[in-house]
Amino acid sequence: MTVLPSRPARPVDPALVSIALEVAGRLANDASDVIMATAGRGARPDGDDSPFDWVTDTDQTLERHTRRVLTGEFPGIPVFCENVDVPFDAEYRWVVDPIDGTANYVAGVPWCAYSLALVDRWGPVVGVVADPYRAQIYAAARGRGMRANGAPVRLGEQSAAPIVCTEMTRSGPWPGMGEFITRAAAAGTGVRVLGSKALAVAQVALGHATAAVLHGYHEWDVAGAVALAVESGAAVLDRRGDDDPLPVDGLLVADPAVADEVLRWWQSALEYRIADGRV
């Protein structure tokens, strides 16, 4: 079993955390309503871009609304999203993904999310993920735990299914993905690719899946869900196995009881790919 070192946590003004949670939760509810009202209406973006690169009118509407509210409530904190560069040396920053799982949203597949997080250099301070199709708002704040529609969530309260979530990269399967799936299957664990990085990580925080492995992502994809994972008691590791509240080079989120085993599958799959001359 992975024993997690205590994460150095910078104290945060409790008043800031409280108002950030309230505003983020309100924005997540707004986004959930908009997504449910517009999903699957055939609003496929023009052009021949990959679905990984699609930006819909709803993305843009939610991004503008999120930015307008956050800049009004927190004028000194920059907002970071797909098309806006923000200095990473800012004391705090908001990161938002208006629709994580855009291809699913466009098709009406019930698996997409709105993700928002307040981040400092120690990792997520506040995170919310809206799961519109399940009418759930997941929220967490540093040192305050995780909640699903207001109910506390903590790993260990139920046994997770032997499922690992992962996602494709923009170019397809990540290096070693096939070998990883084979190793997981040999251990009696299924691997699922469902189309939303935020919801993949959230499943671990909720205790529905034992782990999530993401080879490639942006901060806005995962910051909100990582906040949930940290506060639910999950292990959050990079691909080297180092404890990290917001890794930038590969992400493993897992129930601590299985984190070492899943990490071995991942590292072995990458080594196998390299040894086989396919990287």
Structure description:
The protein is an alpha+beta fold. The chain folds into two domains: 14-152, Fructose-1,6-Bisphosphatase, Chain A, domain 1; 161-275, D-Maltodextrin-Binding Protein, domain 2. It contains seven helices and twelve strands. It has helices spanning 14-38, 57-73, 102-107, 177-186, 197-205, 219-232, 259-275, and strands at residues 79-80, 93-100, 113-120, 123-131, 136-141, 145-148, 151-153, 161-166, 190-193, 209-214, 235-237, 251-254. The strands form two sheets. The protein has a seven-stranded mixed β-sheet with strand order 1-2-3-4-5-6-7, sandwiched between helices. The radius of gyration is 18 Å and the shape is globular. The two termini are 31 Å apart. 44% of the residues are buried.
